[in-house]
Amino acid sequence: MTHLRRRPRRPFGGRAALAASFLCLAALTACSDGDGGSTGDATPSASPSSPAVGGTRITIKDFTFGPADLTVRPGAKVTVVNEDSTAHTVTATGAKPFDTGTIGPGRTATFTAPSKTGGYPYFCTIHPSMKGSLTVR
């Protein structure tokens, strides 16, 4: 009589392991905004915009906007990163062609620059002494 030896079963071997790997990868990809971070309280991050004259990022730190004066092309996506320990906004004055809404500490928001060229002063509605300017050309 010949005895056949059975190989031990592996709990996650073969096709099951491959399927589990794909599920994990899909879940991780769906939770990311593509650059390792998460999106903030305002508009979700969008695909990169056309290059701006002076960059497309405003950083809020120590109750100041950096850079205080930013020049972009019409319709550019502008990313705002709040590196402060309190919430802020980036709100245009006048007709308010852009407003990020409240951006929590450590959060990021985006807005679309106006399509009309010109100067657009903005401020933080929570801390009105914080001021900056967006130039569209």
Describe what is shown at a glance.
By secondary structure, the chain is of the alpha/beta class. The protein is built from 1 helix and 8 strands.
Radius of gyration: 24 Å
Beta strands, count: 8
Secondary-structure element pattern, one letter each? HEEEEEEEE
Proportion of strand residues? 25-35%
- By DSSP (H or I, 4+ residues per run), the number of helices equals 1
Structural class: alpha/beta
Uncertain segments: 10-54
Principal-axis shape equals globular
Distance between the termini: 89 Å
- Strands in their spatial order, largest beta sheet: 2-1-4-6
| Mean of residue pLDDT values | 74
Helix content: 10-25%
The largest pleated sheet is described as: 4 strands, mixed
Q: What can you see in these coordinates?
A:
With 137 residues, this protein is an alpha/beta fold. The chain has 1 helix and 8 strands. It has one helix at residues 14-30; strands spanning 57-61, 64-66, 69-72, 77-82, 91-92, 108-112, 118-123, 131-136. The strands form 2 sheets. Strands 2-1-4-6 form a 4-stranded mixed sheet, with no helix packed on it. β1 and β2 (64-66) form a beta hairpin. The longest helix is centred in the N-terminal third of the chain and has 17 residues, at 14-30. The protein is globular and about 35 Å long.
